[in-house]
Design a protein that fits this description.
Blueprint lengths: L5 E7 L2 E9 L3 E5 L12 H5 L4 E5 L21 H14 L5 E6 L1 H12 L4 E7 L4 H6 L3 H6 L1 H6 L5 H7 L2 H10 L12 H9 L2 H14 L2 H12 L7 E6 L4 H4 L2 H8 L3 E6 L5 H4 L1 H12 L2
Parallel strand pairs: 3-4, 3-5, 5-6, 6-7, 7-8
Antiparallel strand pairs: 1-2, 2-4
Helix pairs in contact: 2-3, 7-10
């Protein structure tokens, strides 16, 4: 996995961030989602490296990055702090601005990074999300059923950590394998890596804190932005899986246009895990948006 990429750790913002780096050309940062690691990009990153300097990291709380204990206000895992981690990684590599792609939780970090540091992001791609505040504001029985894990994992520590920690593999098989495509997209190479990383109790805690922050401090930051009329100003491409929940529960482009000035996008023939289910199609979409 990631042959011809270098592996580095960056001491930034009080944590250490694990990364792989490869290719040449304009810088491109890739951010994974829950409950995964930078391994989610393993198929598409080598192709992108033919045109871009690709940086794929593990978010704080995930993979082989630091997993600090959460604070009572959950600010350790605020998307503002997680975004700052990633900005400082790119700055340490000498990239003052870059292209940015985020999947799932990584897309929420990417959204916050673009809001807080607009000069740093040339173009933004979000994969299979609408903004966090839009999800909570729209919650009904159907949304709550699809996003069940949000409400479970934001319960106070140590309840969800204890429940998940009793059998991390069973949780991963249920949560990841229960979606469109089952476990096939992760076999045979990525699944052992996801299981290795997520079996760490600190990773379970860190990821729960990520969701607790989403339901508390992140909403405060998001509401303040909306009140001030602060939106993403760079071009934004929103992509989602046609077999997933986002397009079924929301009108994604209409939602994103409340949060961003220049929005385009579409559904793709995939479930939630777009980079692993349809890497070729994703590659082509990214190249068209960033280059063509």
């Amino acid at each position: 996995m990631y042959e011809n990429f270098s592996r580095r750790r960056f001491a930034v913002n009080g944590v250490e961030i694990n990364a792989v780096i490869g290719g040449s050309g304009p810088p491109l940062l890739l951010l994974h989602g829950y409950p995964q690691t930078h391994a989610i990009w393993r198929q598409v990153a080598p192709w992108l490296a033919e045109r871009f300097t690709v940086v794929a990291t593990d978010l704080r709380g995930y993979g082989d990055s630091s997993k600090p204990a959460g604070l009572p206000d959950h600010s350790t895992y605020a998307k503002r702090e997680m975004a700052r981690d990633q900005l400082e990684v790119m700055q340490a590599l000498g990239h003052s601005s870059f292209f940015l792609v985020g999947h799932d939780r990584g897309a929420r970090v990417a959204h916050r990074l673009t809001l807080d540091h607009p000069d740093a992001v040339r173009r933004l791609v979000t994969l299979d999300i609408v903004p966090t505040k839009a999800v909570f504001d729209s919650t009904n029985m159907e949304v709550a059923s699809a996003y069940y894990h949000w409400f479970f994992m934001l319960r106070p520590s140590p309840f969800p950590e204890t429940m998940i920690g009793c059998n991390p593999e069973a949780w991963l098989r249920f949560h990841m394998g229960g979606r469109y495509g089952g476990l096939t997209p992760f076999q045979p190479d990525a699944w052992p890596e996801y299981l290795r990383c997520f079996s760490d109790p600190q990773a379970i805690h860190g990821s729960c804190e990520d969701y607790r922050a989403a339901g508390t401090i992140d909403l405060v930051h998001d509401a303040a932005d909306l009140e001030r009329g602060r939106r993403v100003e760079c071009p934004l491409l929103a992509l989602w899986g046609e077999h997933g929940s986002v397009g079924r529960l929301f009108q994604p482009l209409d939602v994103w246009r409340r949060y961003a000035a220049d929005v385009r996008g579409s559904a793709l023939p995939s479930g939630h895990y777009i980079p692993e289910e349809i890497p070729e199609i994703l590659h082509d979409e990214l190249v068209r948006f960033f280059v063509d």
